[in-house]
Design a protein that fits this description.
single chain; about 210 residues; 2 domains; four-stranded antiparallel sheet
Length: about 210
């Protein structure tokens, strides 16, 4: 009976923790969120557990304009308020656990699946990440500013896509463009059968080159 109780307690502790706490990627030291918008999040595959880490580097201070010219003010913290748009059975956890990242610190957000994606989940899921940045302004004290990070998405594809494909020297494949239609920025991926310089020309529906 004692062994059974201990086993139940161990399982309960694992469930309550949600998931192992993430570790920030040490290669990132400059203030910002990584991976950046150009790199994006890893692809998810049907039948395979998903686990992706976003590293958040909060600078010690930032520059704002109080009407008298640019002024350096210290960061109090940056708080992750919510992540919406996740696929079914996907969730997230933070390090620190309360999702409050103090100024001058590095933390992370772990996005993971609690149940492996299924065929019915195949698709592209744009994410909306709501954060609040708080700085300490002279005389005024702490001032908060909400903002939205909306350039991330998770694409779930058939696990068969994990298999090796053959490409010859003439192969060229354009992958998914996101978002489509393009608003301000877009991510374009391609596969080439040989190492070569590739030039993309982007035009609008009227044929005007950007």
């Amino acid at each position: 009976m004692k062994k059974l109780i201990l086993s139940i307690a161990a399982v309960a502790a694992f469930i309550s923790s949600g998931y192992a706490q993430c570790t920030p990627d040490p290669q990132f030291t400059v203030g910002g969120i990584y991976p950046d918008s150009a790199t994006g999040l890893a692809t998810a595959y049907v039948g395979v557990a998903y686990d992706e880490v976003i590293t958040n580097v909060v600078p010690a201070d930032t520059i704002i304009d109080l009407g008298l010219g640019p002024t350096s003010v210290p960061f109090v913290d940056v708080t992750l308020d919510n992540v919406s748009g996740l696929p079914a059975n996907f969730t997230y956890s933070c390090n620190p656990a309360n999702c409050v990242f103090p100024g001058g610190s590095t933390g992370c957000v772990n996005i993971y699946s609690t149940v492996n994606p299924s065929v019915s989940d195949i698709g592209i899921y744009p994410l909306v990440i709501d954060v609040t940045a708080t700085v300490n302004v002279p005389i005024l004290g702490p001032q908060s500013q909400p903002t939205v990070v909306d350039y991330y998405f998770i694409e779930i594809v058939d696990s068969a896509a994990m298999g090796l494909q053959s490409y010859d020297s003439e192969s060229f494949e354009l992958k998914t463009i996101f978002p489509n239609p393009v608003v301000d920025n877009s991510r374009i991926q391609f596969i080439s059968g040989k190492s070569q310089l590739v030039t993309f020309t982007v035009m609008n529906v009227l044929g005007k080159q950007f």
